[in-house]
Amino acid sequence: MTTYLLAEDDSDIQNLVRIGLRINGLSAHIVNDGRAALDAANQQAFSLIMLDRHMPQMDGMVAAKEIRATQLNADTPILFLSGDSFETHHIENCHLLQKPFTVGELVKRIRSLT
Description:
By secondary structure, the protein is α/β, with parallel strands linked by helices. The chain has one domain: Response regulator (Rossmann fold, 3-Layer(aba) Sandwich), CATH 3.40.50.2300. It has four helices and five strands, in the order E-H-E-H-E-H-E-E-H. Strands 2-1-3-4-5 form a five-stranded parallel β-sheet, sandwiched between helices. The chain is globular.
């Protein structure tokens, strides 16, 4: 079973991703911040983890590094969804989809990474 995790504090983007995935026969477990993403990554293996870069509690970069230390998701692809342009090569198997993005772009990227 393919399971995705989205950590995003913006409810509009949460809804966009939720609806866009549902239309394409996909779904995601959605949390509001990096700390909750790390907690979820410690409890369940995911096929892909999507992280916003700037979130309360723990930002996406810190969460990604911490997720890499988990047993369940050490090798899981991470896709940053961010308005910032930044390098992700220093964290293994991390990628960037820059905001704003379309549902089609998101689904295409998800499918290419999983």
